[in-house]
Design brief:
heterodimer; A: mainly alpha; ABC transporter involved in vitamin B12 uptake, BtuC; 2 domains; 18 helices; elongated; B: alpha/beta; 6-stranded mixed β-sheet; 4-stranded antiparallel β-sheet; 11 helices; 10 strands; 36% helix
């Protein structure tokens, strides 16, 4: 059943929802990365909650004008307008008052959402509103998604994605070093508004699928996931798009396999599963890799200590150390070092002396954290820095 | 030593500031500052902590918006000449866990060439690597920036500024918390820039090296406390006036006398 869903074999509506969700996830993941790297993830929460009053007002207006209140494009326009007002409020409060951004976000988010809920209650008392199901926009509802809706979502998502990618260079510069970006002629305030506008557009586009409460997860979780896998911002953006798109596709497919499985929350949970897998398995920043590194680190430390003991003609007490020395062909069974053992021991002692000198140096000592028994000092310092260290060693024989 | 003659009228100075006041909230941090940077020389901005040294630099770059004042760069408004200025911010001002590598940071210095969508081409990479080589970091191009020492981070920032091929270099505490090798590598680069006729202005905190490194000083403690060639402006009296009781008398005369 799940395989059928993943291969888009279980019906027209499910196929529309799955493809629409994948497009939304892709766009949200990549766009959200810029926000994540700018360390302003929470603003997205304020923006998304601020869509609600506009949504309800747009519905009322369309009904009052005698149209169909559920027209998705109309609802999107209303949401965008009120999200924009919410965004400007946060921006204004942060810039013009002494309020910190977190307080401004909290205030705007709750006030707009509260007002939106009031309007929603009013809508439900209207005769036309009872069947409107506007509350489905809180958590998303994909039942009865129209072809035009899916096209709107996919096209909107891809348009946002294209805009974010076009602006990637200034956005990343502002995220890394705003002061420098300003000297390059980049208007920081305008870039922040641009990324927020794109986030707002994603929120509006995603209303139908994941709803306004959970959209922030689709913006942030893929970026946090991707950060485990790469140390380069451009790859983090691409990976976040990939993870977001996969979460959207798989989550929507899963929710299509059984009636009553809500699409939006399942997509978010799928994204979370990818996040958890990355947290555990990613090389470098992952938990498992950290544990393996610890083990290998322990062995390297033992080997290193053994070599230093050999270099200084001291006995090796620990069994693990002796075993490692023997297995690496550095020491014979009777405890006598091999010729390779001698030369490796001398090299280790030289490296150790330099690390010791580095520890006592006024400005390089912060690098001593990188002395893990694995790293050679040659990999950490520039040649002139090493020459400077060697000069210090030569003038202060006591440091060895 | 270089030219002691002040050959810089405000309309040709690389950086001329008139009546600059910057205030955070209602607290003026620098008040009514006039400054005329001499072309082709190295100028140190010195003063005690909280005297507004960094703020002066940031206001000169329009990163901080001043309350009042006029800034001209090579005789023209800043906006038209901004491309001729390279800025080296304080190292501590950015998050070094940001996912980027050394070469990518240096490439940021080429933003004015690359623009929004321009492709990074082989000659851009070459240019960035040359700048890294100039600060002794050519082997570190592919490192994650979080793995660098403070001095290496500072060198990367300097390389990024070099990539801009600017005429005026503004540096904010380039020697703060760096190792001795980095300090001499940086000063070598700055002196080579001066030899090419470029102008260097650095916020500097170490009074003992002012005389060895710089041609001119600008003393500031919220207000301008002195300006000019080292011999004339970096005297026990001016330093005492700028730092007040923060330095002992013997210390001051020792620092300011010729070595």
């Amino acid at each position: 059943m799940l395989l059928d869903a993943l291969l888009l074999q279980i019906g027209y509506n499910a196929t529309l929802v799955t493809l629409g969700s994948a497009a939304l996830g892709l766009a949200a993941g990549a766009t959200g990365t810029f926000l994540f790297l700018r360390k302003r993830s929470l603003v997205a929460d304020a923006v998304s909650h601020a869509t609600l009053p506009g949504l309800a007002l747009a519905f009322m207006l369309m009904v009052a004008l005698g149209g169909d209140g559920r027209n998705l494009a109309g609802l999107m326009a209303g949401s965008a307008l009120s999200a924009w007002i919410g965004l400007l409020s946060v921006s204004w409060l942060t810039r013009r008052t002494r309020l910190a951004e977190d307080a401004a976000i909290g205030a705007v988010l709750s006030v707009f959402f509260g007002f939106g809920i009031v309007l929603l209650t009013v809508v439900q008392t209207l005769s036309a509103g009872r069947q409107a199901g506007l509350e489905s926009f809180l958590l998303g509802s994909t039942a009865g998604m129209l072809f035009s809706d899916a096209i709107l979502i996919a096209a909107g998502g891809l348009l946002v994605l294209a805009s974010a990618l076009a602006l990637r260079r200034p956005l990343l510069m502002v995220a890394f070093d705003p002061g420098f970006a300003e000297t390059q002629g980049i208007d920081i305030h305008r870039m922040d508004l641009a990324i927020m506008t794109l986030v707002m557009a994603i929120t509006v586009v995603g209303l139908k699928v994941v709803g306004l409460i959970l959209i922030v997860a689709l913006l942030i979780i893929p970026a946090a996931t991707a950060r485990f896998w790469s140390n380069r911002a451009d790859r983090v953006v691409l990976l976040a798009g990939l993870f977001g798109g996969l979460s959207g596709y798989i989550g929507a497919a899963i929710s299509a396999t059984a009636p009553g499985l809500p699409t939006g929350p399942i997509i978010v949970l799928t994204g979370f599963a990818v996040f958890t897998a990355s947290l555990l398995l990613a090389p470098g920043r992952g938990v498992l890799s950290a544990a393996l590194r610890h083990r290998s680190h322990q062995r390297q430390v033992h080997l290193r200590q053994g070599l230093l003991a050999l270099a200084q003609d001291q006995p090796v007490y620990e069994a693990l150390t002796r075993r490692l020395l023997r297995r690496n062909g550095l020491q014979r069974a009777d405890g006598v070092p091999t010729s390779e053992g001698h030369s490796r021991a001398a090299a280790a002692l030289r490296d150790e002396t330099r690390w010791q000198a580095l520890r006592s140096s006024a400005h390089l000592s912060e690098l001593s954290a990188r002395d893990d028994g694995l790293t050679l000092i040659l990999d950490v310092l520039t040649p002139d820095q090493i020459a400077e260290l060697d000069r210090r060693i030569a003038t202060a024989p006591g440091t060895a | 030593m270089t030219l002691a003659l002040p050959r810089t009228a405000p309309d040709q100075s690389p950086l001329a500031i008139r009546g600059l006041t910057v205030s955070y909230g209602e607290q003026p941090v620098v008040f009514s500052i006039d400054m005329t940077v001499q072309d082709g020389a190295m100028t140190a901005i010195i003063g005690p902590n909280g005297a507004g040294k960094s703020t002066l630099l940031k206001a000169a770059l329009n990163i901080v918006k001043p309350l009042s004042g006029r800034i001209t760069v090579y005789g023209q408004p800043l906006a038209q000449q901004a491309h001729r200025i390279a800025y080296v911010p304080q190292r501590a001002s950015v998050d070094w866990d940001f996912p980027t590598e050394v070469l990518d940071v240096v490439l940021m210095g080429l933003y004015r060439d690359l623009g929004l969508l321009g492709r990074v081409r082989a000659h851009h990479i070459r240019q960035a690597r040359d700048c890294l080589a100039r600060v002794g970091m050519e082997d570190f191009a592919d490192r994650q920036i979080g793995q660098l020492s403070g001095g290496q981070q500072q060198r990367v920032f300097l390389a990024r500024a070099l990539a801009q091929k600017a005429d005026l270099y503004l540096l904010d505490e380039p020697f703060a918390g760096v190792d001795a090798a980095t300090e001499s590598a940086i000063i070598d680069v700055l002196k080579s820039l001066r030899a090419e006729g470029k102008t260097v202005v650095a916020v500097h905190h170490d009074l003992s090296t002012v005389r060895a490194y710089f041609d001119n000083v600008f003393l500031i403690n919220r207000r301008k406390m002195g300006e000019g060639p080292i011999a004339a402006a970096f005297t026990p009296e001016t330093v005492q006036a700028t730092y007040g009781g923060r330095l002992a008398d013997g210390q001051i005369s020792q620092l300011t006398m010729g070595a």
